[in-house]
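JOB MANIFEST
job_type = single_chain_structure
chain_count = 1
residues = 297
[input]
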Amino acid sequence: MKHKGLVIAFVIVALLGFSFIAGMFACFFLNGDVGTGFFSGRAVGVIEVTGPIITSKEIIEEIEKIREDDSIKSVVLRVDSPGGAVAASQEIFEAVTELKKDKPVIASMGTVAASGGYYVSCAATEIFASSGTTTGSIGVRLEHLNIGELMKWAKFDQETIKSGKLKNMFAINKPLSSEAKVVLQSLVDEIHTQFEKIVSESRQLSDEKVKEISDGRIFTGSMALKLGLIDHLGGFVSAVKRAGELGGIDGYPKLVYPKKRRGIVERLFAEAKVLLYESRLDVAENLQPMLLQMSSN
């Protein structure tokens, strides 16, 4: 009986040891977040641009990791975003453009890749979208929050000391002045012109053609293909295969996700930030009533 117990204990320890070794193998060699391991030389990096584009910092860090990894031969830029802040979208576009000089970049549009989401996609070598993807929305918008009547109802008052008559044109307790609207419209028009130029140059479309479709309207992937806004119809798998081809990889490539795995608390904060942004209750928006955006919302 004692001998039988020892055998059972040995089997349990062996199984646990095997499970540990298998887990370590998966961590070091099969997990794209850690490294390419045995798949060195046939890896495709995946950069995800998901949700509202609020900041560019994390995505640019991921781009730099992929640029420095010689085992990664090409990249899939997975975009599932309705857009967001103008400057952040432009910074991501610039970083992807630089990455493209070293490695092919295939943009893969998910459910939506509109406005700022389409802007960053334009930096890719080629663009894939599903036939039902929502894209386009080539335009810019600026918001001003006016809660003057609410403040009166709540018996709140606001006093501002300023220099320059337009210094406080975004005051939340009153409408925009006619002069402020003229200034802000010129700002929006300037950013819109920049957007149109990017689309024209990256997609090799005439300025006239771009102006016809840059009124903020959205398109399906099928419509975008006919207009020359994308290159191919296909999902993520198709984009990965194309990235492998351009990277000279035989067979289906290993996918490497440089994105840092976040803890549960960090993920909850990130999700809350997106919800606040989409519901227009984001603290930054309340503190800054003016929000210049490339967003399809």
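[summary]
The radius of gyration is 25 Å.
The mean pLDDT is 81.
exit_status = 0
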